[in-house]
Write a structure and sequence with these properties.
The chain has 167 residues and is of the alpha+beta class. It contains eight helices and four strands, in the order ααααααββααββ. A hairpin with a 2-residue loop joins strand 1 and strand 2. The chain is elongated, with a radius of gyration of 23 Å.
Length: 167
């Protein structure tokens, strides 16, 4: 009966690996995934799609072992979570504080429509179809692209639309 309720506090709380090792593993994996996602996944026309969720889940699974080095204690998990959150915060802070960092990390906006004309080269570059773009126009109450002065794929993946002035 006693063994059912006993807790091995030592194995649960005492790290089995060097804290520096855990921090460096977490840092390296965070930065590798950050750079790869920055290069591969930019746009989010609408919301997160099924393939985006799949990529995130698989990245978590694949990177978990490299990051954790078979971490077994709660404190080791906490160190890894803290490392990921630290880097996330540090990058956001650096982008806010230093415009050069923001320009380096964030994609510039990409024009998709210019004076009512679709720009196929730019659309192809980010895999935006005419159908997706027309759907975004309809969501803004625009029936015809001729009503659009410009449409941009923004750094966050959303499409902003500027109408021609009515006057």
């Amino acid at each position: 009966m006693n063994e059912v309720w006993s807790v091995d506090w030592q194995s649960m709380l005492v790290p089995q690996h060097s804290l520096l090792d855990l921090f460096l593993r977490g840092t390296i994996m965070y930065l590798v995934i950050f750079v790869l996602l920055r290069l591969v996944l930019r746009r989010q026309v609408g919301d997160i799609g099924t393939s985006d969720v799949l990529v995130i889940v698989l990245l978590a699974e694949v990177s978990g072992n490299a990051m954790a080095a078979k971490a077994e204690s709660v404190s080791e998990g906490a160190i890894l979570v803290g490392t990921v959150l630290l880097w996330s915060y540090a990058i956001e802070w650096a982008q806010f504080r230093f415009p050069a960092v923001e320009r380096l990390i964030r994609e510039p906006k990409l024009k998709l429509i210019d004076n009512g004309r679709f720009l196929p080269r730019n659309m192809r570059r980010e895999f935006v179809t005419r159908g997706e773009l027309r759907a975004q126009l309809r969501e803004e109450g625009i029936e015809d692209a001729a009503e659009v002065k410009a449409a941009y794929l923004e750094a966050d993946g959303h499409i902003s639309i500027i109408r021609h002035d009515k006057g």
